Amino acid sequence: MLDDFMVRAALAGVGVALAAAPMGCFVVWRRMAYFGEATAHAAVLGVALALAFSLPILPAVIVAALAMSSAVTALRGRGYAMDTLLGVMAHSALAVGLVAVAMLSNVRLDLMAFLFGDILAVNRMDLATIWLGGLGVAGLILWRWSALILSTLNPDLARASGIDPRREEVWLTLALALMVAVAIKVVGVLLIAAMLVIPAAAARPLVRTPEAMAVTAAIIGALSALGGLYGAYWFDTPAGPSIVCCASLAFAATTVISGLIRR
Amino acid sequence: MTAPLISTENLSVRLGGRTVLHDVSVQISPKEIVTIVGPNGSGKSTFLRTLIGAQVPSSGRVTRADGLRIGYVPQKLAIDASLPMTVQRFLGLPKRISGAKARDVLDSAGAPGLENRQMSQLSGGQFQRVLLARALLEQPDLLLLDEATQGLDQPGSAAFYRQIEDVRHTLGCAVVMVSHDLHVVMAASDRVLCMNGHVCCQGAPEVVAEAPEYRALFGSGTQGALALYRHQHTHSHDHSHEHGHKH
């Protein structure tokens, strides 16, 4: 069964969607969309470094993503608005990464695959990485679920309940870095933030509790992955962007429907 | 005298290079209602945050009685519209609670029947009562309220303070609250702490209102309000509702 490239692609897409759903809810609740973007862009730098020093790519991507999120956290509140800071960091990381890759003239690298994903070329090893890493991300988020929600609501309320909101933030950052490393093969660096934000945003109008939002986002994300692959197969479109297009359609649909119901 | 629930010794807090609090030594005894008044930026909220452990003191220390349970109502809580949250789920953070328990605690906070509502759809008064309900869940020995009536109108905050007094009666907990509603709060308090980076003066409401430190901060304008309170107080004692102004 795993011999069929479409089956492998479908499993990879669904795996990433399931892992991205609970993580994506926090990205939306904590207004971290740009933060996710910056962390994802840092991955290009990670790839360049891995190639330059012939290191394995996966750990290099995780380290680069972690370095980016630590840098942003350290620079926070030093005189720049958060979106300015993230705008500088995200685009600098992407640009420096692309320049670094170009300077490695002895390496042949399919840059498009890193930027937009190459889900149809997923092999068994990639599949194992995606599902194990995805389980890690989802497991981390679900383990800290209630403490993270309370820290997101109000840090002082969390403290009063014996929860350290800064420690919870570290867990979230770790999960985000892992998520980037897992999703890079499927949707690529440029669209990882989309897989986090769009299914969660599409789920929001349909739900009344945080848990329902995570489950609904997972369903929307998985259906988008399958729908996008189907579309890519029949219309010969790039798979990663097609998946994101499906998620965007879901977002448009739930937004319009909830708007009509509310009237 | 009974042992204090919580006490601070020479507490100082520095925030961003500025000393916000210095040499604060305060004891809170069981069942007393203490109100903290003071101008903006005088360290009132910082003091409460230090009591719950959210702020680490730069010197001095906080001593809590063994097994002290604290209920905390924060100054402001803005729930992002992107976060769906029912009242029941909010009360169950971080530990889930049963529907029966949620109904009970909402009843005692004066907000019955709200458990299935969305937090974002509550009125200001309902929202504060839900926060109060959450603080009451663990049957606290000490209830800390940070400007809990912010954004409520005069009748709304008066009703909220009556609720606090009810809760104190039924639970027998001590209450420490920060407030700007000087006259309402001072009326209901056993003790008032006047704070401005340090404790300027403290004591019974009448004593503090006469203190020169208090007048220096608030002027004598609040005198009228306190006098009004005394007036009402006399009436409630002699149960005569005719307005004889004997005092």
UniProtKB/TrEMBL annotation, chain A:
Membrane-spanning ranges: 6-29, 41-68, 88-107, 128-150, 170-200, 212-233, 239-261
Pfam family, one: ABC-3
GO biological-process terms attached to the record: response to zinc ion; transmembrane transport; zinc ion transport
Keywords associated with the record: Cell membrane, Ion transport, Membrane, Transmembrane, Transmembrane helix, Transport, Zinc, Zinc transport
Membrane topology: Multi-pass membrane protein
Record PANTHER family: ABC-TRANSPORTER METAL-BINDING PROTEIN (PTHR30477), HIGH-AFFINITY ZINC UPTAKE SYSTEM MEMBRANE PROTEIN ZNUB (PTHR30477:SF23)
Described purpose of this protein according to its UniProt entry: Involved in the high-affinity zinc uptake transport system.
Official protein name in the record: High-affinity zinc uptake system membrane protein ZnuB
High-level lineage: Bacteria, Pseudomonadati, Pseudomonadota, Alphaproteobacteria, Rhodobacterales
Automatic annotation (TrEMBL), chain B:
Single GO molecular function: ATP binding
GO biological processes: response to zinc ion; zinc ion transport
Record has Membrane as a keyword: yes
EC number per UniProt: 3.6.3.-
Domain (ABC transporter) ranges: 6-221
SMART domains reported in the protein's UniProt record: AAA (SM00382)
Protein name: Zinc import ATP-binding protein ZnuC
Native source organism of the sequence: Falsiruegeria mediterranea M17
Taxonomic lineage of the native organism: Bacteria, Pseudomonadati, Pseudomonadota, Alphaproteobacteria, Rhodobacterales
